[in-house]
Amino acid sequence: MTDKVEVFNVNTPGRSERVDAAKYNAMRAAVLSVAPHAPPGITAAELKETAMPHLPQALFPGGKTTGWWLKCVQLDLEARGLMVRTKGSPLRFHLTNKENRDEQH
User: Fold this and answer.
1) What pTM value is reported for the model?
2) CB neighbour class for 64 (10 Å; exposed up to 12, middle 13-18, buried from 19)
C-alpha cells in the first residue's frame, strides 16, 4: 500500500484529496528549493524546468507526470498560503514568508 498525503486546492476551498506521498514530497521539496521568495516570481514553465533536475528519476522516469505533480503541489502550496500568484500574463508564482515552508506532509 502506498503512503498518501492530503493536499488542498486553492480553487476549491474546503475540499482535499489524498495523493501519493513520495511523489508529492519529492515535487514539493524541488519546488521549495527553486521557487523565488519575491516578485516577479517564476512562470509555471520555468518552475517545471528548474525543478526537474531536483526530482528522483525513480519516481519521475524521463520526467513523466511532472506537469501534473507540479500543478498539484503549486495549488496545494497556494491553498496553504506558502505560495502566491501574481496578476498578469503569464501567471508567475513566488513563495511567501510563511514559517512552515519546510514542514513535511
Assistant:
1) 0.90
2) exposed
Between strands 4-8 and 16-20, the pairing is antiparallel
pLDDT at 19 over 90: yes
DSSP at 9: -
Q: Tell me which DSSP letter residue 14 carries.
A: T
Confidence bin at 99 (pLDDT 50/70/90) = low
SS3 letters across 57-104: CCCCHHHCCHHHHHHHHHHHHHHCCCEEEECCCCCEEEECCCHHHHCC
Q: Contact, 3 vs 22, CB < 8 A? A: yes
Q: Which position has the grid cell 502550496?
A: 77
For residues 40 and 10, what is the distance between their CA atoms, to the nearest angstrom? 20
Residue 18: phi and psi, rounded to 5, are -110, 130
Q: Is the pLDDT of residue 30 over 80?
A: yes
